[in-house]
């Protein structure tokens, strides 16, 4: 009985880390390290009107619907890390999956999206 309680307690403690790792997202601070150290490219998959209202500094806008056609034109080196961003992360997760199908194995969604980027006090600009 004690073993079962200990195992379930351990699972409850580590469950957020396990599920977060499975999502494949990158935290804003990790994204900054990838940008600075490995020349990662930020791609905002929001619609142009959303992008104009505010986006991560230095990000390029490719709406999700245009990703398959535009990503190879914007990011020619498929070995670079690609960080996909949207408002809260759901579109970016889909975009990361699409990018991986296009051969961008280092594509990741920004966990929490632009909201998390702002909460980390990272720079945002308006178009």
Describe the structure.
The protein is 52% helix and 13% strand. It is α/β, with parallel strands linked by helices and 127 residues long. It has one domain: Rhodanese-like domain (Oxidized Rhodanese, domain 1, 3-Layer(aba) Sandwich), CATH 3.40.250. The strands form two sheets. The protein has a four-stranded parallel β-sheet with strand order 3-1-4-5, with helices on one face. Strands 2-6 form a two-stranded antiparallel ribbon. Helix 5 (90-101) links the parallel strand 4 and strand 5 (107-109).
The CATH architecture can be named as 3-Layer(aba) Sandwich
The H-and-E topology, N to C, reads as: HHEHEEHEHEHE
The value of Rg in angstroms is 17 Å
Enumerate the spans where pLDDT stays under 50 for 5 or more consecutive residues: 15-23
CATH topology (level 3) name: Oxidized Rhodanese, domain 1
- Overall geometry comes to globular
Widest sheet, order of strands: 3-1-4-5
CATH homologous superfamily caption: Rhodanese-like domain
Largest sheet: 4 strands, parallel
Percent of residues in helices: 40-55%
CATH class: Alpha Beta
Question: Based on helices, strands and strand pairing, what is the structural class?
Answer: alpha/beta
Number of strands: 6
Number of self-contained structural domains: 1
End-to-end CA span: 60 Å
β-strand percent reads 5-15%
Average pLDDT confidence is: 88
The tally of helices reads 6
